[in-house]
Amino acid sequence: MTTVTRSSAHQAWLARARSALGGAVTSFKPPDELAIVISHGLGSRVYDVDGREYIDYVMGSGPLIIGHAHPAVVEAVSRQAALGSTFYWLTVPAIELAEKIIEAAPCAEQVKFVSSGSEATFHALRIARAYTGKQKILKFEGGFHGVNDYAMMSAMASEPTPYPQPIPDSDGIPPQIAETVLVSRWNDVELTRRLIEEHAHELAAVICEPLQRALVPAPGFLQELRRLTEQHGVLLIFDEIVTGFRLAYGGAQERYGVVPDLATYGKAVSGGYPLAAIAGKAEIMAVTDPSRRGRGEPVAHLSGTLNGNPVAAAAGLATLEVLRQPGVYEQLYRTTELLKSGLRELAAERGIAVQVLGEGPLFQVLFGEQEPKDHPGVLATDRTRARRFGLACLERGLFVNPGEKFYVSLAHSTEDVERTLDVFEAALDSVRD
Ligand SMILES: Cc1ncc(COP(=O)(O)O)c(C=O)c1O
């Protein structure tokens, strides 16, 4: 294993992080040899505490679609911070951001804000249960909806799921939760149809990532989900936390032309600040109205100290303003295509079977002969090699989450693409067997 060079001061920060934080702020952490502490980010770059520069493809795990510290976001956040950071009450930025989501998202007639994507999916599922009066939800194997107990079912399973029983992704989840979650196979129309038909009487919602991780929906799959859920009185929830404002300004709903009942937003919608949203048809969202309590109508409690935080909403508004400019999505798609096609060519020249998955400004690099269509397909690829490839990139100055998605932003330039392809070339050579 190779190592990133780090000063003694840098190593001291890492030692303190190991002691105070268990070495990471999330469950994802690189091996110790490649661990770094970040000092700052600007545009497409991040810098570690030694001043070493990396071209960033983590981009905050997706939120920074217009780049780090974009001047418009910095200005909007500074202006709002000087006016007060939080009120637990209505503010102008929160109202305006809700209106922007309603303009952008076909399913959105009303919006509720929370602080994280995990909360957004948790509340969307609760809203669906309250509205339908039914208890169960159906999700897809490999679909990630955050870390709430309902979402952590067959999201990251390393073995095939015995459909429809989920495999919990974490210890500490009560087994009763697993009994309320059914799991189907992504892109499998027949299995999904059978499960929806058999369980329609107890199924509140089907939740999916319309682009599941980097696995595109098979032609007609989302349309069939829409048709089946409508037919059986089950709500359809699109988790657009990654795809919202990324695949298109109107997210996956615009890109794929399918309108769910509810959708969740996070990441790009708040430009790197803590805010997420649940949006949907007004009749369904009405269950969050507290004045219903005691009137015999369904009601789902939804609260949070920082909900609709005005600083985060201001960051979101500034980000969406940039994303609304002409040519933005063309540029995001073009930059990503250069990276994907460049990588495919480099791999082909070396006779390495690579699968570059994804759509729009994100992609994932897997190694194998077959293009995966679902989670078992992903498990069948050489994931150790994918992780080694990611680590080789990290070591050579690309900031990546090894084995996971690459997020592309408006800040990534053609020079970044050229430098990245040089690194890809060396990283491919290093994983050649
Ligand atoms: C599709 C999807 N849903 C939900 C989440 C959870 O969001 P958060 O990390 O803000 O809780 C994520 C996070 O990566 C995600 O990718």
Structural account:
- Helix 6 (189-199) packs parallel to helix 7, helix 11 runs parallel beside helix 14 (414-431) and helix 13 crosses helix 14 (414-431).
- The protein folds into 2 domains: 8-69 and 327-431, Aspartate Aminotransferase, domain 1 (Alpha-Beta Complex); 71-323, Aspartate Aminotransferase, domain 2 (3-Layer(aba) Sandwich).
- It is globular.
- Strands 4-10-9-8-7-5-6 form a 7-stranded mixed sheet, sandwiched between helices. A 4-stranded mixed sheet has the order 1-2-3-13.
- A hairpin with a 4-residue loop joins strand 2 (45-48) and strand 3.
- The protein is of the alpha/beta class.
- It has helices spanning 8-21, 71-82, 92-104, 117-132, 175-178, 189-199, 221-231, 251-256, 282-285, 310-323, 328-349, 375-379, 383-395, 414-431; strands at residues 38-42, 45-48, 53-56, 110-114, 136-140, 181-184, 203-208, 235-239, 262-265, 276-280, 354-357, 362-367, 398-399, 405-407.
- Helices cover 38% and strands 14% of the residues.
- The longest helix is centred in the last third of the chain and has 22 residues, at 328-349.
- Pyridoxal-5'-phosphate (PLP) binds at residues 61, 116-118, 121, 144-146, 209, 239, 241-242, 266, 276.
- GO terms for molecular function: glutamate-1-semialdehyde 2,1-aminomutase activity; pyridoxal phosphate binding; transaminase activity.
- InterPro entries: Aminotrans_3 (IPR005814), Aminotrans_3_PPA_site (IPR049704), PyrdxlP-dep_Trfase (IPR015424), PyrdxlP-dep_Trfase_major (IPR015421), PyrdxlP-dep_Trfase_small (IPR015422).
- Its EC number is 5.4.3.8.
- Pathway: Porphyrin-containing compound metabolism; protoporphyrin-IX biosynthesis; 5-aminolevulinate from L-glutamyl-tRNA(Glu): step 2/2.
- Pfam families: Aminotran_3.
